[in-house]
């Protein structure tokens, strides 16, 4: 187990500086254009692939960094560049983690490389869990997967929504109900390979922020996938369902609810780190502006009303980073989240990003309200952090129930 440290080692500093260079030189200059276009920035993803940032190897290296700081450091730097473009770069990783967490070695080896493609033909992947009537309440999921034993195929029907890269992805990872009696315990994840008949993109959403990241509905109409596409395999699923049925019997057959997926505890710090990146970016612009903008014959930072805002912004960003680093270290080192520290880090960092970016707009005055300055975009982008991977209310619910010793699932 690695000791908790707040100091990056030399190798991590080198990676951080390299990522920062890419964020500053490639991502940031492209941010306004792709925000306006509201399209996936394929050329930027390709650049990231060429230098090795858009690859399984890179994420695996950060993911398995025993200090736990690899992923938060990478997320902070990329999202410092621009949230929409960075999500287009790391969105595939969300689907890849779904396979890493539940797949067999063969599935990991087969599907994850296909999710990324190669630098001459980059691909993206999508993770599809949310549905129109199942957002926070994951247990209400309706997309159904039925096993066709004669053909050893699964038949999937349903509509997914809010899928990052949905419909433009090669590989889609789809969560579906295999036993409706078991609530969220009756869910399983499937690979839908590129080009599978019956999978199509529904509406593409026109969003408030992170507009360079594609978000769409995914319609599954009699989608047939081979048995080998069930993540983890049939034997493991059958054993898991048998255990869940026993447990359901013991609790009087009550349908199991899952309002607030505790299993996300370990991945939430990564979203917190994205929020820290956006918050830091807006703070830096505001600090620079406050030092140079003069009114009443002096820089506006000479006014306590402005300087104290900057002091609070920086304090909250640093506090958010510390919570994120702690939770990430705990996740990598298998520490139990006895106070829902993962949710705490996401809650605090995402609320901080919303607050800090709003203050940055205020400090830039009229300029902050225009698209000539990046804080306007950062303010719009930051609103996503309190919504996806569990809303702030759901984070509070998880933290409160954990503290109270109440079941979350
Ligand atoms: C840009 C974007 C990208 C996304 N990417 C993906 C993706 O790649 N894959 C995927 O599967 N999903 C994705 N999502 C979906 C996202 O995770 C959901 O939007 C989120 O979980 C909230 O669900 P909902 O939108 O249905 O809101 P709802 O669950 O309907 O919530 C509405 C409001 O009610 C509150 N609320 C709900 N229940 C409670 C409660 N018990 N107590 C208190 N308050 C409550 C919520 O906090 C929220 O304020 C994405 C969403 C967006 C906007």
UniProtKB/TrEMBL annotation:
Domain Acyl-CoA dehydrogenase/oxidase N-terminal stretches: 9-115
Record-annotated Acyl-CoA dehydrogenase/oxidase C-terminal domain positions: 259-403
Annotated Pfam families: Acyl-CoA_dh_1, Acyl-CoA_dh_M, Acyl-CoA_dh_N
Residues of the Acyl-CoA oxidase/dehydrogenase middle domain: 126-223
Superkingdom of origin organism: Bacteria
PROSITE patterns on file: ACYL_COA_DH_2
Parts forming coiled coils: none
Swiss-Prot/TrEMBL cofactor(s): FAD
Keywords per UniProt: FAD, Flavoprotein, Oxidoreductase
Family affiliation: Belongs to the acyl-CoA dehydrogenase family.
Name this protein carries in UniProt: Acyl-CoA dehydrogenase family protein
Organism per entry: Streptomyces musisoli
């Amino acid at each position: 187990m690695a000791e908790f440290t707040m100091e990056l080692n030399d190798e991590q500093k080198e990676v951080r500086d390299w990522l920062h260079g890419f964020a500053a030189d490639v991502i940031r200059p492209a941010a306004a254009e792709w925000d306006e276009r509201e399209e996936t920035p394929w050329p930027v993803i390709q650049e990231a692939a060429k230098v090795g940032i858009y690859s399984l190897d890179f994420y695996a290296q950060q993911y398995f960094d025993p200090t736990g700081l690899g992923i938060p450091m990478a997320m902070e730097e990329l999202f410092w560049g621009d949230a929409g473009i960075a999500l287009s770069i790391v969105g595939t990783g969300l689907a890849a983690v779904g396979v890493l967490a539940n797949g067999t070695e063969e599935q990991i080896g087969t599907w994850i490389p296909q999710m990324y493609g190669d630098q001459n033909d980059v691909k993206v992947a999508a993770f599809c869990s949310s549905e129109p009537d199942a957002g926070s309440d994951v247990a209400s999921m309706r997309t159904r997967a039925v096993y066709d034993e004669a053909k050893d195929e699964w038949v999937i029907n349903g509509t997914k929504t809010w899928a990052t890269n949905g419909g433009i992805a090669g590989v889609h990872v789809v969560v579906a109900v295999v036993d409706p009696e078991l609530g969220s315990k009756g869910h399983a994840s499937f690979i839908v390979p590129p080009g599978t008949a019956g999978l199509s993109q529904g509406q593409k959403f026109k969003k408030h922020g992170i507009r360079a990241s594609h978000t769409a509905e995914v319609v599954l109409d009699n989608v047939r996938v081979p048995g080998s596409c069930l993540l983890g395999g049939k034997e493991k699923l059958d054993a898991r369902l048998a255990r869940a049925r026993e447990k359901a019997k013991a609790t009087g057959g009550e349908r199991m609810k899952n309002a607030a997926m505790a299993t996300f505890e370990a991945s939430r710090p990564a979203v917190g780190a994205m929020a820290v990146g956006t918050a830091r970016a807006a703070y830096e612009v505001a600090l620079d502006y406050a030092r140079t903008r003069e009114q009443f014959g002096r820089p506006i930072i000479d006014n306590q009303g402005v300087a104290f805002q900057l002091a609070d912004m920086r304090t909250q960003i640093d506090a958010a980073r510390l919570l994120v680093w702690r939770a990430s270290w705990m996740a990598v080192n298998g520490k139990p989240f006895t106070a829902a520290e993962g949710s705490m880090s996401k809650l605090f960092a995402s609320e901080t990003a919303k607050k800090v970016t709003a203050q940055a707009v205020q400090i830039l005055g009229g300029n902050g309200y225009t698209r000539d300055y990046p804080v306007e975009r950062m303010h719009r982008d930051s609103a996503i952090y309190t919504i996806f991977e569990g809303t702030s209310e759901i984070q509070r619910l998880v933290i409160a129930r954990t503290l109270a010793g109440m079941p979350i699932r």
